Amino acid sequence: MRKKKILMFHQVLGTYRIDQFNLLNELFDLEVVYFYDSMQGLKINQKILEEQCNYRFSYFLRGIKYGDRVFRFGMYKKIRQAKPDIIMSYEYSLATQYLLLLRSLGLIRQKIGTMVDDSLDMCHNVQTKAREFVRNQTVKKLDFLVVMSDEVARFYRKRFGLNEQQVIVSPILQLTERLRKEPDKIEIYAQNYVEKYNLSGKKVLLFVGRFVSAKALPLFLTNISSILHERNDTRLVLVGEGPEKEALITITKEKNMDDKVIFAGKYQSQELYGWYLSASGLVLSSISETFGAVVNEALIFGLPVLCSQLAGASSIINAKNGLTFDPLDKEDTVQKLNLFLEQIKVVDDVSLAKKPPLIEDFRDDFMSEWNKLS
Length: 374
Description:
By secondary structure, the chain is an alpha/beta fold. Helices cover 38% and strands 19% of the residues. The protein has helices at 18-27, 46-51, 75-82, 94-104, 120-124, 129-139, 150-160, 176-179, 183-196, 217-230, 245-254, 269-277, 293-300, 330-343, 363-370, and strands spanning 5-10, 29-34, 56-59, 63-66, 69-72, 86-90, 111-115, 144-147, 167-169, 203-208, 234-239, 261-265, 281-284, 305-308, 322-325. The strands form three sheets. The protein has a seven-stranded parallel beta sheet with strand order 3-2-1-6-7-8-9, sandwiched between helices. The longest helix has 14 residues, at 183-196. It starts with a strand and ends with a helix.
């Protein structure tokens, strides 16, 4: 039987989408058109990413850009050429609005859906009134939505009267076997980090990501400074870069935590995975986060997570793999971190075999949800 063809217009080829789109290509004939040829602000080897993609893809880079919004020329021509059964876009973007306009004019007749990455908090507390208005008008016109958690799916079904078939639950999915496939190399990186930063016997809290306002790192660092001072066995490792780095360095110096906070720099692929292996637990302190793919990655490497309750990834945290906390509440942050520190282990053996994944394999659920479009 012929597979249905999906033509997807998407922002950028992200590391955390590769496994998801590869699996989607097993169910459908998937073709993705990207509007950017690299992730903005990140130095990532794009060729390495492309080599991992089992689906067809191309880049549309010519068009109009206004702030964070972009419109690319050639979408209608591509649709006519590809003749898909289903067309997908992202969020309530200009691309999504253009597809709905084409259909209202009778120029296309395919089903149209979009991927909405909002967390439950973002659903209730929409960033702007304009976005809320556009969302409310757009949802009524779409054939289906792809969201990242059951909680968000329930929100859309209740708020907009959508049925089960109209909402596909598809959280970030990264395959354990792909991320953990080179254990020897990952363990060498991990051992080097442990030796370089004298982490053996310490409880190492790891942050991975960009140092931007949404991550709320200055607030988190200020709130936990007393804990770092009191506990000689605890270190905070910040992996990444970003505009708030200087503020973080200033807080570290003002509170005399130079020996407790480590600015490690940026890493990717196996070098990054080495950090997951050489830490005791991951921290995600975001006050606004659609999901947080680093939570997936940490759990795949057997690393418990202290996760902001405002991040979409909080939906996959349970009593066996971590805790959630309110990053805007200092008392809750301190209380949960102290509890988390009692639960996690000091850095000792960096053997990958001794750190089994702390996340379920939900490929079957993924396939079941996407089969709603079959």
